[in-house]
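RECORD TYPE: inverse folding
INPUT: structure tokens
STRUCTURE:
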């Protein structure tokens, strides 16, 4: 069943505990810091009903409509439909949003793939995993992701410092487990639920731990406190900062002050092997949507750079064309990895169509590690005017407007208003607080770079290059023995 934007807004208009800039937020749907991004999420729900976009955003099964973003992927066409739906959203809203649910639900599918592993370790919970996945398809919730704890002193185990530095269980009751700690989580304050799991990658020799837990956490549960970083939306004018004012996905330090998780929402518990399994496979689906967002970023950079050099007559210079070509190579590199990941996709243990992990994870490294250089190249192609141009007010005020008109009109095609708009857009895309926040988001929000490389290491097929060198160098078969 697909929901409307209004239904989503009604559902998050509850008594959840949200704080920002030292104040309690009474209504997250109307608070100026959250309203723009909440409206974007509501619009995505409405797009599934809008006759212009419902075909691309929803699908029909047994006479009912469901959201494409949460659909379980069984075929390449399912993935193409997801890609099209994300493209439709980005086009409609005119910017990039990442944490919107379709990009996080895949983490649950990874857990489903581990059903046999989870059953073998502790059979109590795999039914919960399956039910939650099907509930997400049926009920269309806004589902986010909670991985990262404050962690404290990384050189010490949690027991040797404030134990709340990592989320852990403090009590078991008939109703469920009671958990304590905190997580950093984008969009938590205006989402409905999250898949919470540990950050810890190395459990040493521990088989059981109160820190090994995976649960569905309700964002309005008693004891959940959303302490949010201040946002960009309220600090700027929409004319001068067209992206900051619409697409700031506010992040939360989500404090868990003895939160009861009912047993039916527990997905794994105590067994460190289950926690290790999920950390190793977490992004095998969700990286697809994450990387696709960076493709839109690349388009935003290319469009901005090209319009700028066209405005100023620089496009005809060969050196400028080469820089544009470099941006195009970056963009098509991401596109190629996403396309190949689906072309080479395989059936997963749960029967889903899993993007080829090597293509997807190397694509994620390509997209994330090259991004700062591509931002800088776009900045270079835009020239220094993006950071010296006066604000919109100067284009309006009677004393200054004629000068702005004179110096920002380039020719008949490019008049001052369009040049101002392009420069403001470029500044917000590349140079503003929001721009650097987005760059850090891409660096960390789906785990840090060393974890991206770890995923490549675990999924690349090393036997191909090894076999080639063994053959061409005439090495014995002994060298191919992994254990040697
Ligand atoms: C904008 C933004 C949004 C985010 N949104 C979310 C979210 O929605 N949900 C969520 O769960 N988290 C989110 N995060 C948190 C993010 O996942 C963490 O920032 C990330 O996992 C890194 O953890 P840390 O910040 O504690 O860095 P640290 O653990 O302090 O690591 C800092 C650096 O130390 C080095 N390092 C640390 N450990 C190792 C190691 N084992 N091997 C090699 N090098 C190492 C690396 O260079 C690493 O980048 C977000 C972060 C940002 C910036």
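DESIGNED SEQUENCE:
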């Amino acid at each position: 069943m697909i929901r409307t934007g209004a239904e989503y807004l009604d559902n998050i208009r509850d008594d959840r505990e949200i704080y920002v800039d030292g104040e309690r937020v009474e209504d997250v749907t109307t608070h100026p810091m959250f309203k723009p991004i909440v409206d974007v999420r509501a619009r995505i729900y409405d797009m599934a009903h809008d006759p212009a976009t419902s075909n691309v955003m929803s699908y029909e099964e047994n006479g009912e409509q469901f959201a494409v973003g949460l659909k379980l992927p069984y075929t390449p066409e399912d993935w193409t439909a997801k890609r099209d739906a994300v493209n439709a959203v980005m086009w409609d809203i005119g910017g990039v949003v990442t944490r919107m649910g379709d990009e996080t639900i895949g983490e649950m599918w990874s857990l489903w793939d581990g059903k046999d592993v989870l059953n073998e370790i502790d059979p109590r919970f795999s039914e919960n995993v399956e039910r939650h996945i099907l509930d997400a398809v049926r009920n269309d919730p806004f589902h986010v992701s909670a991985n990262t704890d404050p962690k404290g002193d990384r050189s010490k185990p949690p027991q040797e410092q404030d134990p709340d530095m990592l989320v852990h269980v403090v009590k078991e009751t008939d109703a469920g487990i009671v958990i304590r700690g905190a997580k950093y989580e984008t969009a938590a304050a205006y989402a409905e639920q999250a898949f919470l799991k540990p950050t810890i990658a190395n459990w040493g020799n521990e088989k059981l731990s109160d820190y090994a837990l995976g649960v569905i956490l309700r964002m309005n549960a008693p004891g959940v406190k959303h302490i949010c970083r201040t946002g960009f939306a309220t600090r700027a004018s929409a004319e001068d900062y067209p992206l900051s004012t619409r697409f700031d996905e506010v992040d939360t330090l989500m404090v868990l002050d003895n939160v009861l998780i009912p047993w039916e929402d527990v997905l794994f518990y105590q067994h460190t092997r289950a926690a290790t399994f999920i950390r190793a496979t977490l992004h095998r689906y969700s990286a697809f949507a994450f990387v696709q967002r960076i493709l839109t970023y690349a388009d935003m950079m290319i469009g901005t750079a090209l319009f700028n050099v066209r405005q100023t007559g620089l496009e005809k210079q060969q050196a400028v064309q080469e820089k544009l070509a470099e941006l195009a190579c970056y963009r098509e590199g991401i596109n190629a990895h996403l396309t190949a990941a689906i072309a080479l996709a395989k059936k997963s243990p749960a029967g889903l169509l899993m993007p080829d992990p090597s293509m997807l994870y190397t694509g994620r490294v390509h997209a994330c590690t090259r991004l700062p250089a591509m931002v800088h190249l776009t900045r270079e192609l835009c020239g220094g005017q993006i950071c010296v141009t006066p604000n919109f007010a100067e284009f309006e005020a009677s004393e200054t407007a004629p000068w702005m008109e004179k110096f920002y009109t380039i020719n008949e095609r490019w008049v001052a208003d369009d040049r101002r708009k392009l420069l403001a857009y470029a500044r917000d895309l590349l140079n503003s607080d929001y721009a650097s926040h987005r760059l850090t988001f891409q660096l960390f929000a789906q785990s840090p770079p060393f974890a991206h490389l770890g995923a490549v290491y675990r999924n690349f097929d090393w036997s191909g290059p090894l076999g080639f060198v063994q053959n061409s160098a005439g090495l014995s078969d002994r060298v191919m023995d992994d254990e040697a």
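NOTES: The chain has two domains: 5-281, 286-462.
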